[in-house]
Amino acid sequence: xxxxxxxxxxxxxxxxxxxxxxxxxxxxxxxxxxxxxxxxxxxxxxxxxxxxxxxxxxxxxxxxxxxxxxxxxxxxxxxxx
Length: 81
Known about the structure:
This protein is an all-alpha fold. The chain has helices at residues 3-32, 36-80.
């Protein structure tokens, strides 16, 4: 077998073993309840989403207020009739 092919094969097997060991460590950490790093990643990913949803939250709140006013006005006009 060619020496280069053997080196590539060994490197590939080594990478597969390292990835498997890392996944095993992550699974064991998650099973033991050590979620600090998972929470940190989740928080860092959701912060931009929270900021981008803020204007929509204000818009939803304003639409709800206008909807409530509209339903009150309809009730008053129905009561007068």
